[in-house]
Design brief:
Layout (H helix, E strand, L loop, with lengths): L1 E4 L14 H9 L3 E5 L10 H7 L2 E3 L2 H5 L3 E3 L17 E4 L7 H9 L3 E4 L14 H18 L21 E5 L3 H12 L3 E6 L2 H10 L4 E5 L2 H10 L2 E4 L25 E4 L20 E4 L2 E4 L9 H22 L1 H7 L1 H4 L2 E4 L2 E2 L2 H7 L11
Parallel strand pairs: 1-2, 1-4, 2-3, 4-5, 5-6, 7-8, 7-10, 8-9, 10-11, 11-13
Antiparallel strand pairs: 6-14, 12-13, 14-15
Helix pairs in contact: 1-2, 5-6, 9-10
């Protein structure tokens, strides 16, 4: 199979869909890997290094998109829609629930679109989303701490404080992978940390592993309201697989946050769990609304591209080989967990939460393959 790796064109997106080790694995299995010239530079991989690993470097995006399967990092942008065609296998993060236009184009062009973020493990986990959730969770505290600095519009609080001053207060909405990793960094920086969740078992687990260094609260409107009144930094870390994130903080609640507080909405690529958040970019990552600094960059891990690319390839490569070796139809028939990743197939939307999010009909994949 010909596998194309385009250069990511989202603003300040420096990741690449595969690292040199992944190229070695795919070419050793008999597949041809086409990589757009310069695609790896942002992650620290030269054209020569990728060629040495076995890739064929091609000059244009069109050369890459002509492959049987395109493997990338972020969802296609408007300028890439021209490359869609029937039977193309697109294997990437898609986050389609808040993107009706992209979903429409994928369906109209009969692309077979497999989303990293909805492939499931046997235990219901999301193994291809996990590493980027780990990165984003850890980064959320870093960027949140910076957003609290006075010159960025913040109140001038140091999260860890110093002797004789209070520590910064962090409220994390959601105790999943993002939330747990955010808590790890926030505790490490010396902040006072509260995690809100609705899963009692998860809260008990977090209390156990953090050995009393965090507190947990059941996530309801009253507790959220009180937590954000208290917090200097609020991190939105809620995920419903494949679906739009629920809005846990509405605009009226911002009035209860003190001026110069900060919000980091990690769920922004699924529509955000904070009503006032809108996607921002690495070039202009924050805006201030009602005195609160908002950081809402959808591709946060792109800022640490080398770490992210290695972590991503670790989990995406196995399924890429499975698709390439067996063919996509055989692969999704044989593996129900991979099949969960199929969001669009030959003109149909095959993931129910996406169909609901974009307002289109849902067709179970088993009716099509």
């Amino acid at each position: 199979m010909k596998i194309g790796i385009p250069k990511e064109i989202k603003e300040r997106e420096h990741r690449i869909g595969i690292n040199p080790g992944g190229v070695v694995e795919l070419t050793a299995a008999g597949h041809q890997v086409l990589i757009e010239k310069g695609a790896g530079i942002g992650s620290g991989f030269s054209n020569e290094e990728l060629e040495k690993a076995g890739a064929t470097i091609v000059p244009t995006a069109a050369d890459v998109w002509a492959a049987d399967m395109v493997m990338k990092v972020k969802e296609p942008l408007a300028s890439e829609v021209q490359y869609f065609r029937p039977g193309l296998i697109l294997y990437t993060y898609l986050h389609l629930a808040p993107l009706p236009e992209l979903t429409k184009h994928l369906m109209e062009k009969k692309v077979r679109a497999i989303a990293y973020e909805t492939i499931e493990g046997p235990d219901g986990s999301l193994p291809l989303l996990r590493p980027m959730s780990e990165v984003a969770g850890r980064m959320a505290v870093q960027v949140g701490a910076a957003s609290l600095e006075k010159e960025r519009g913040g109140k001038g609080i140091l999260l860890g404080g110093v002797p004789g001053t209070r520590r910064g207060r962090v409220a994390i909405l959601g105790g999943g992978i993002v939330g747990a990793n955010a808590a790890t960094i926030a505790v490490g920086m010396g902040a006072h940390v509260t995690v809100l969740d609705i899963n009692h078992a998860r809260m008990a687990y977090l209390e156990d592993i953090f050995r009393g260094s965090i507190e947990t609260l059941y996530s309801n409107k009253r507790n959220i309201q009180q937590a954000i009144e208290w917090a200097d930094l609020v991190i939105g870390a809620v995920l419903v697989p494949g679906a739009r994130a629920p809005k846990l903080i509405d605009k009226s609640m911002l009035a209860d946050m003190s001026d110069g507080s900060a919000i980091v909405d990690v769920a922004v690529d699924q529509g955000g769990c904070i009503e006032t958040c809108r996607p921002t970019t690495h070039d202009n990552p924050t805006f201030v609304l009602d005195g609160v600094v908002h950081y809402c960059v959808p591709n946060m891990p792109g800022a640490v591209a080398q770490t992210s690319t290695f972590a991503l390839t670790n989990v995406t490569l196995g399924y890429a080989k499975q698709i390439a070796n067996d063919g996509v139809e055989a692969a999704v028939k044989a593996d129900p967990y991979l099949a969960k990743g199929v969001n669009c197939w030959d003109g149909a939307c095959t993931y129910e939460a996406v169909a609901e999010g974009v307002g289109t009909d849902y067709t179970p994949l088993e009716k099509l393959v």
